[in-house]
Amino acid sequence: MNNMGNLIPSKGLAITYLVRLSIGSPSGGRSEIENLNVIKKIREGFCDFPYASSQAMKRALRETLKGLGYKISPIVNSSPARTVGDPIKYIDDDLFGFMEAGSKKSGRDEIDKHNGIRKAVVSMTPLLSLSAFNDNVDFGSNMMGLQAGGNPMPYETEVHRGWYRVSLYIDLNRVGTDAGFITEIEEKKRDDNVNELIKNNPGEYDFITEVPEDKDRKLKKGFATCRKICKDELPKEERYKRAKALIDAIRFLAPSGRSSNWLIDLTPKLMVAAYVKGARTPFLESPLLDDKQKDRNVINLAAIETSKDTFDDGIESMVVGYREDLIERPDAKKEETPKATDPSLKDNKKTNDSIEVTSIRDAFTTIDIWLKKHFKIDEKGKTAHEGDKGE
């Protein structure tokens, strides 16, 4: 049976952006050999490209959310370690998901079976370098041993500099709702054909089984036992605030881990963002910088336009934001780029291909407008239409 007509295409934000590392050791670890802190790398051909794992990037987002004042889910001392798994109370359990398979903490086995696993709302790539590793190493000494009368412990740390890129997709339809937000399960038994029940009630029933003849329970063959999942969700104002909090965390993203030794800036320097329906990663592989401009950092608008045309039917809106002090537009010299406060900026935002190119700050303002539209929130942060169910 084909239920494709009942499917609702997901709507979300697809964001690809670049960061610049002056010098750092992204996602480095300690080697057991020669006391060397190595950088994670992936090899292509004869070159190694440094990267920071998506797990490390999500950890950085969690820590930034905490720094912005949001309550983060505590870690449960278990094997393996996990969060408490409460997406209603904690924003990171909502956005990044959790897995607590086989939970029976409340005795409501079927509910806990669903509450135990929540797929992440945010899908994210590793932070990958655009340039190869050149075997650069920093040297240091651990002087703590001197206090105990020992000798300084020398060590080495691999370091790198250059442009890095990362992409993420945020499923806005699932922020503050879906798995983990189940409040109760209502079991119903109907003497109907299972396929007809699914057809007439799309998306309302789960665990639909066709029960064979059971003399003890006095059920006839073909009798359908259905459990209707009664889902709950946060108010649209709170769903909007959580989505906005994640965008703010990207805008002010701070590194986690060894930031005391390597203070790096993970905030976007060049960003392509799109409000999409179905097209989850339209700019995932797009080269955002023009490789032909070896001595300049120039936006590759031609490549961005190609991706836009390829996924045009899945992109509702898009914007390109950049730092004018670090990156140039291909259609204007750096010294002639209008300032963000220049009234003429509005006339210079559109390229010949109708791609909006603006400052990073204005790009994040545009994304906020998309979020308000999606969750039907007015400019005061209230629900625009109380009767609406959202996107």
Describe the structure.
With 391 residues, this protein is an alpha+beta fold. It contains eight helices and 20 strands. The protein has helices at 54-67, 91-96, 109-115, 194-200, 236-251, 301-310, 345-348, 360-375, and strands at 11-24, 29-30, 36-38, 41-44, 47-52, 75-76, 82-83, 98-99, 117-118, 122-124, 127-129, 137-142, 153-158, 160-171, 182-190, 205-211, 223-231, 270-277, 315-322, 357-359. Strands 1, 4, 5, 10, 11, 14, 18, 19 and 20 form a nine-stranded mixed sheet that branches. Helix 1 (54-67) crosses helix 5 and helix 5 runs antiparallel to helix 8 (360-375). It is globular.
Task: Show the helix and strand layout.
Elements: E1 11-24, E2 29-30, E3 36-38, E4 41-44, E5 47-52, H1 54-67, E6 75-76, E7 82-83, H2 91-96, E8 98-99, H3 109-115, E9 117-118, E10 122-124, E11 127-129, E12 137-142, E13 153-158, E14 160-171, E15 182-190, H4 194-200, E16 205-211, E17 223-231, H5 236-251, E18 270-277, H6 301-310, E19 315-322, H7 345-348, E20 357-359, H8 360-375
Parallel strand pairs: 3-13, 19-20
Antiparallel strand pairs: 1-14, 1-18, 2-3, 4-5, 5-11, 6-7, 8-9, 10-14, 11-14, 12-13, 15-17, 16-17, 18-19
Helix pairs in contact: 1-5, 5-8
